[in-house]
Design goal:
With about 525 residues, the protein is α/β, with parallel strands linked by helices. The chain folds into two domains: about 350 residues, no CATH class; about 140 residues, no CATH class. The protein is built from 18 helices and 15 strands. It has an eleven-stranded mixed beta sheet, sandwiched between helices. A two-stranded antiparallel sheet has the order 1-2. A hairpin with a 5-residue loop joins strand 6 and strand 7. Helix 8 runs parallel beside helix 17, helix 10 runs antiparallel to helix 15 and helix 17 runs parallel beside helix 18.
């Protein structure tokens, strides 16, 4: 008996979604497909036919009409939600029963929270529905399963994540549903929560847990009676280490049970943090700038500036980068003891800021009327940093904590617009960090290319989504351009009829965040 843990990306919600569910685990020893328990084998064998006997689309016909397979590049992973359902609306993706191939350093299989306005039948039909479903970067898969969009989930994980896995191959069928929960510590409020159940061999719920939004130890206190979990969907899942997935793809055992129509009902989803996972703030910390100081800078920035769009986000970041660059020039000149150095005092920069229309328009109204009363202390704090600290702060930059499209945008207790240090920082995270070398990047690209080439005879994706994971600070920034180029090239070589589309809310636009000031 193995244990599958739903590992959160965001440590702020770690206690709320670190659910543990016992499932029937499998060990893969190489060769043909592994032996499965009867219930799992029957469910896997039926594939998406078990869940979507209707609404089938002919992707071959659509591909002929459209001429391309869309590849959509997004910033945070939950930003795939509007693109997935838009593709359904456009007739590109089947509305029910698709296979999701998820190549990622994280499972992204946390349960959602059913906020007010969440679609009652779990399927989004309005813009508001899509917004309330865009909660976190790790809940979008379960949401898609509940809606019926996804019925089979194959997660291919990198070897560097081995500490989080007991076996190189695991397979199971999981039941997902809703439970009506009474929270005594929330004034006896009744809340609908997501419940997950291990099924018996007849696919009936055997043991269940639910997302306890108040518990600090949900793995101990969040069990629920199976009869109270209103089952809505079945998620067939396979969790496979990358080398094992490649072997299974090459010997034909990975997708051997799919019909011609099912091979076209596929969404290929790749996160660039598959290559590695880092703390974006680390280069700043390496310059002896503490998280205490960074938190102080965050509080000033969040109170002074209130951008509302990614365009305004970039404008504010650009102006602050220019200010920091000017300070670097002044400090460097002074260190070299040159006779004449440029100005670098508070009055000079305050005047410069007030003359910058884009920056003034992004300044919080409540502060605009107080004549930048926080600008002086903010400037004094930044001016106290060393040249090397300033350089790293400039490169890290200033950005939204989450996408403006997110459900909770603007309501974050820890700030909205901050230094761009990412969601997880050292000593504040349960996420495993891994910094790859260039050689490892090249090796992982080769493995990805070989895997996709080995699967193209058996599957034809309707849609490909690629996540940058820059905003949450995971993807190694120094290798970002190489990684994205390799991922897009690998997909294009395997599926030549593809065209890349870039989401409008990418940090730094199409070019990306790292090196954005070097253009």
């Amino acid at each position: 008996m193995n244990v599958l843990r739903f590992r959160p990306r965001n440590t702020a919600i770690a206690a709320g979604i670190f659910l543990t569910l016992a499932i029937c685990g499998l060990v893969y020893l190489g060769g043909s497909a592994p032996s499965l328990s009867p219930g799992v084998r029957d469910t896997l064998g039926k594939g998406s036919r078990h869940f979507s006997a209707q609404n089938k689309l002919s992707h071959s016909r659509l591909l002929h009409e459209w001429g391309t397979i869309p590849i959509v590049v997004v910033e945070e992973h939950h930003e795939v939600i509007p693109h997935w359902y838009s593709a359904v609306k456009d007739g590109i993706v089947n509305p029910k029963g698709n296979l999701l191939i998820h190549i990622d350093g994280h499972s992204d299989s946390a349960p959602p929270i059913f906020f007010d306005g969440y679609p009652k039948d779990f399927y989004p039909r309005t813009k508001d529905h899509l917004t309330v479903m865009m909660q976190r970067n790790d809940a979008f898969i379960v949401e898609a399963v509940l809606s019926g969009l996804i019925s089979r989930y194959v997660w291919i994980w990198p070897k560097w994540d081995s500490k989080n896995h007991e076996e190189p191959y695991e397979a199971s069928a999981m039941l997902l549903g809703v439970v009506d929960t009474l929270y005594k510590n929330l004034d006896n409020t009744r809340v609908k929560s997501c419940c997950m159940c291990e099924p018996d061999e007849e696919m009936n719920p055997k043991s269940c847990v639910f997302l306890n939004i108040t518990s600090e130890a949900p793995e101990d206190s969040s069990k629920v009676d199976p009869k109270d979990c209103d089952i809505q969907a079945v998620m067939v899942q396979e969790i496979i280490r990358e080398d094992v997935a490649l072997e299974m793809a090459q010997n034909g055992s990975l997708f051997h049970n799919m019909t011609d129509s099912e091979r076209e009902n596929v969404i290929l989803d790749i996160d660039e943090d598959y290559y590695g996972c880092e703390a974006a703030v680390q280069p700043v910390l390496d310059q002896k700038l503490t998280m205490v100081t960074i938190d102080k800078i965050d509080r000033f920035v969040d109170q002074i500036f209130c951008p509302e769009t990614t365009e305004e986000e970039s404008s504010v970041d650009k102006v602050l980068a220019e200010m920091i660059s000017a300070l670097i020039r002044v400090k460097s000149c002074e260190l070299e003891k040159k006779p004449s150095c440029p100005k670098g005092n508070l009055e000079f920069y305050t005047t410069k800021v007030r003359r910058n229309t884009a920056l003034v328009e992004s300044t919080c109204v409540r502060q605009r009327n107080k004549r930048f009363r926080l600008w002086g202390p903010f400037f004094k704090l930044v001016d106290s940093l060393t040249v090397n600290q300033l350089r790293q702060l400039r490169e890290m930059g200033f950005c939204f904590r989450t996408t403006p499209k997110a459900h909770d945008f603007g309501s974050e207790d820890e700030g909205v617009f901050l230094t761009c240090h990412g969601a997880n920082t050292p000593n504040r995270s349960v996420v495993i960090f891994h910094s790859p070398t260039m050689k490892e990047v090249e090796q992982r690209t080769h493995l990805l290319q070989t895997f996709l080439q080995s699967t193209k005879k058996r599957i034809l994706p309707s849609l490909v989504t690629v996540c940058r994971s820059m905003r949450d600070g995971y993807t190694p920034r120094k290798f970002f351009r190489r990684i994205e180029k390799d991922v897009l090239t690998s997909v294009d070589e395997a599926f030549p009829n593809s065209k890349v589309h870039y989401d409008r809310d990418l940090m730094g636009g199409k070019r990306g965040w790292p090196g954005r000031h070097n253009v």
